[in-house]
Amino acid sequence: MNAAFIRCSFLAMILATGSTGVLCAQEAQSPQSEPPQPRAEQENTPQAQQKAFAGVIVKAGRRLALQDPTSKVSYTVDDDSKVRDYLGKHVKIIGSLDASNILHVESIEPVS
Questions:
Q1: What would be the CATH architecture of the domain defined by 51-110?
Q2: Full-model pTM
Q3: What's the DSSP call for residue 88?
């Protein structure tokens, strides 16, 4: 009788372990309750990080730009009205660059 009890217990443990694996496998294959966010919405969120840019506000054709006096690299600003009062002056701009190398100005302050 003792041997039969051990065999039944062993069989019960094997069945329990096997069914747990099946349940885990089914859980892994079942779809998530929340669908992932569509790619189009993710692309509309701003990905550029803001950082500081320093230089002189200059005319670049019909637009205004921030030019680094050392490297001579220029960044066209997104809104001329934000920087117009600083034309010819050294400034520090907090903003972000987009893929077209346009500087989106969040704040601007003169540098002494």
A1: Beta Barrel (2.40)
A2: 0.57
A3: T
